Amino acid sequence: MSDFTLQNVILVGGENSKTLGVTGEKIVPPGPGCVLDLKGRSCVYPGLINTHDHLQGNYRPPVGPKPGVFYLTWLPWDNDLKASDTFKERSRLNREDLYSLSGYKCLFSGVTTVNDHFPQKFNANILPTLPIRAILEYGLAHEASSYDLKWGDGLEVEHAKAIKNNWPFITHLAEGFDEEAMNGVNYLESRKILDDHCLFVHCIGFSDDDIKKVAKAGASVSWCGFSNKFMFNVTCKIRKMIEAGINVTIGTDSSATGSANLLEEMRYDRVLYRAMYGEDLPAEKIFTMVTANAAKAFRLDDRLGTLDEGKLADLLVIKAKRDDPFENLVGAEMEDIELLTLAGKPIYGELRFLDIFGGELPAGYTQITVGKRPMFVAGDPAGLYKTARSKIGFKKVLDFLPFEPE
């Protein structure tokens, strides 16, 4: 693989330039190496960041409440999931299968960085095998309640670990409307766990006072609008959170309740915001939620989230179908992705970008067809898809995989 330069591009989220250079893992001034002229027809974004997923749980169709009713907390959903035909079918796949499928769910939606909301003792060996970056540096609790799943070493220990190592501390919070869920912020505050290391997921039960406290503490929120509406018929007070200055990010949750992927989530959340408030959530704001804000929430904004020189070259190249580059991202489909790189390494793209590899498909890569275009991809997602279908026992369609295996 050679160093490369993308020229005549629309750069979004970095230096005001039409040229971007990559040397090794980093974004650098344009220099020697392979030069690819994109002729002003492509937008280049930072790789997207999904702040909340459960990589073992990505399977379809979603499992939710019975028609006409909704959940009070997450716990009855968990019971329904484990009693469902979807869960029985999913159980034919092993953990490695599910994680690998989830890695490609991320890749095919332009996501280069994700958090898997499980303890490291469950995922530490498998996350480094995925085609994208799944962070391992975090403190974790399942939820701040008596009926949480007791993940990690306890709230105080996990939060202290995050402080010591400059990691995020990530937990579901106020995911529901019983007394405990709605007291989550006070519960954490009483244990001195409310600061800028905290990344809170869902937060649908937040009061106005909770929003003020979280904003004052400098904590972040992962908004999962699709999953919230599907399970609870409501989402968080997202406009008040933004107005209060909270660092809001976007997560998909698992596809067992959430959207198919982050591209779909961005589109859905914008529609949801308009339905709630009668006004648009600007596309530029959504872009920031899935790039710079998310990098800040993960405490990785010195490395990720923008296209500034010196940062890791996580690049998402999308066909320029709209004049506004932010609208172009929010309106993008999986088929619009032209190239995706992880720390300077192309992991998915149109065959014209094989010039970065000297014109040949490298070892460890395969070719698939997406939207009638031949594409190269790291690993063998077609083989994985075939294996999954064989284990499941029929031609299962997973809508986060944008191709049919040959």
Task: Please describe what this structure looks like.
With 406 residues, the protein is α/β, with parallel strands linked by helices. It is 30% helix and 22% strand. The protein has helices spanning 75-82, 85-90, 95-107, 120-123, 155-165, 184-190, 208-217, 225-232, 238-243, 262-277, 283-289, 292-297, 325-330, 381-392; strands at 4-7, 10-11, 19-23, 26-28, 34-37, 42-46, 48-53, 111-116, 133-134, 139-143, 169-173, 198-202, 220-223, 247-250, 315-319, 337-342, 345-350, 365-370, 373-378. The chain has a seven-stranded mixed β-sheet with strand order 2-6-15-16-17-19-18. A five-stranded parallel β-sheet has the order 10-11-12-13-14. The relative contact order is 0.17.
Describe the sheet with the most strands: 7 strands, mixed
| Radius of gyration over all CA atoms, rounded | 21 Å
Give unreliable regions as ranges: none
Main structural class: alpha/beta
Number of strands: 19
Mean of all residue-level pLDDT scores: 96
**Number of discrete helical segments:** 14
Strand percentage, roughly? 15-25%
Q: Share of helix among residues?
A: 25-40%
The N- to C-terminal Cα distance equals 27 Å
The coarse overall form would be globular
* Strand arrangement across the biggest beta sheet: 2-6-15-16-17-19-18
